[in-house]
Design brief:
Layout (H helix, E strand, L loop, with lengths): L4 E4 L2 E4 L4 E7 L23 H14 L3 E5 L12 H18 L3 E5 L3 H10 L3 E4 L8 H6 L4 E5 L17 H18 L7 E4 L8 H9 L12 E3 L4 H7 L7 H13 L4 E4 L2 H16 L3
Parallel strand pairs: 3-4, 3-10, 4-5, 5-6, 6-7, 7-8, 9-10
Antiparallel strand pairs: 1-2
């Protein structure tokens, strides 16, 4: 992807060098850090904008190029969320980051109204686990000057792990992403706005996740920047036996393997270790023989 530039809001990110996307989960129930940004209010879940901003600033200082703000948990078995609840979680956080920090902002959502409101609040990238398949999603973003990440997921978060049968997981995931790219282009979305994500952990078995990782380079044939998110996921716990909060080292190892496969953006909870991994990988890649 040498020489690839991605426009995210008023930021232009050079993806000829891989970058890190830090995860800001404004949720009570995300698998790794749900509730971390809670305000402490006794009734229901409310995001603490101050906590979110502190996390965002720390990730910026650690070297993140983008921040991905999400209000809907997409862990296996996750419950659905109303659009208003999602808006209440993400919009104040995006507005605060936009006002206080000089960093590109992504919104992790599949909900058309949230996409539109988040973009108005300062997000420049829509990171959609459903690849703009919800009714109205394509129309919502087609005419807006934003980047879009299309991810593969079979089914919905609540049921995605119930059907993990594939004849050829790499070929089928690649074909799905190619089709979604074509559909986006058919709706007037320029290729230069698009990213793809194979969706590690979203409707795949452990073995299938590792096959996707091993053959990640096949996705380079789509000709688009590749976003990869494996941070703290069960595919790491399955082989290390470690709980969610002890998977940082496994996540760094997986990130290096993803870099070998051509990943342009690594989405992670653990920014500093992955930034270091990218630097070491760059030095190794550029070392003379």
């Amino acid at each position: 992807m040498s020489g690839t530039f991605l426009k995210v809001g008023d930021q232009v990110i050079d993806l000829s060098v891989p970058v890190v996307m830090g995860i800001v989960n404004a949720t009570p129930d995300s698998f790794s850090d749900g509730g971390r940004l809670a305000s402490g209010a006794s009734a229901g879940f409310k995001v603490s904008v101050d906590k979110a901003l502190a996390l965002a600033d720390r990730m910026l200082q650690q070297g993140a190029a983008l921040l991905d703000v999400g209000g809907e948990s997409t862990r296996p078995g996750a419950a659905s969320l109303s659009a208003q609840e999602e808006l209440d979680r993400v919009i104040p956080v995006i507005e605060a980051i936009r006002a206080r920090l000089d960093i590109a902002i992504s919104v992790d959502t599949s909900t058309p109204v949230v996409m539109v409101e988040a973009i108005a609040a300062g997000a420049g990238l829509v990171n959609d686990v459903r690849a703009l398949r919800r009714p109205g999603a394509l129309a919502a973003v087609a005419g807006l000057d934003v980047a879009i990440c299309l991810m593969h997921m079979r089914g919905e978060p609540g049921t995605m792990q119930q059907d993990v049968q594939y004849e050829d997981v790499v070929a089928q995931v690649r074909a799905f992403l190619a089709e979604r790219v074509d559909i986006c282009i058919g709706h007037g979305i320029a290729r230069s706005r698009l990213l793809v994500d194979p969706g590690f952990g979203f409707g795949k078995s452990v073995e299938q996740n590792y096959r996707l990782l091993r053959e990640l380079s096949q996705f380079q044939g789509l000709g688009l920047p590749l976003l990869v998110g494996m941070s703290r996921k069960s595919m790491l716990g399955a082989v290390t036996g470690r709980p969610v909060d002890e998977r940082i080292h496994a996540g760094v190892a997986a990130s290096v393997l993803a870099l070998q496969g051509g990943a342009a953006i690594i989405r992670t909870h653990d920014v500093a270790p992955v930034v270091d991994a990218i630097r070491v990988h760059r030095a190794w890649s550029g070392a003379s023989h």
